[in-house]
Amino acid sequence: MIKSPIQKVTNKLQYRAIGIVNGVYTPHDKEQLNRGTLIDKKGQKIETVVLGKALSLIRKYIDLKKSYFWIVYPKNKNTQNLHLQISGVWEPYELNEIENQNSKRNNLEVLKEFKLTDNYFSIRGELVYINTEKKEFIIKICSSNQSNKLKNNNFKLVIEGELSLDILRNFLSLEVVREGTTLRMVTYEVVEEFLSKK
Length: 198
Fold this sequence. Notes:
- The protein is mainly beta.
- The protein has two domains: 16-116, CATH 2.40.50.140; 121-192, CATH 2.40.50.320.
- The protein has two helices and ten strands.
- It has a five-stranded mixed beta barrel with strand order 1-2-3-5-4.
- A hairpin with a 2-residue loop joins strand 9 and strand 10 (182-192).
- The protein is globular and about 50 Å long.
- The mean pLDDT is 89.
């Protein structure tokens, strides 16, 4: 059975920032595979790092000349400078032992069955800032590791889109798409209304 690259939420207030991007990963240095550039189908280059758990996968199974669907975590300081962290590869047929290879379908078709698409991101967190002039806002994502409440485990994402100031400090679930190096909101839902303790 093929698994979705972005799993369903297991907790109502589950923070996350995860996406799927199709492209070719090119390391800056062949000896150091953990830093490089992801080049998408349109030729857009995105600075990328590979997280530890994905490094061994890349070393063993990945042909760096080929395009793959990468499972990524986004980071940015503003709407123009997206960085990605590769956490895995979604390659349902090549990397999994699917019983019936005869019914092999295009990866994009399989993605659509999960209601996903290339450059889709699922972002869940607290809305902490809205800039109505620039039409952008900031979502704060907290580490899922509850026992480790260190500040640097939290980070903020700047997303392009318009939101009402009435929902500031609420917990949102957003569907976001990547356009170039910008994350743009498609839809949002207020999961819970709450005021930050800070």
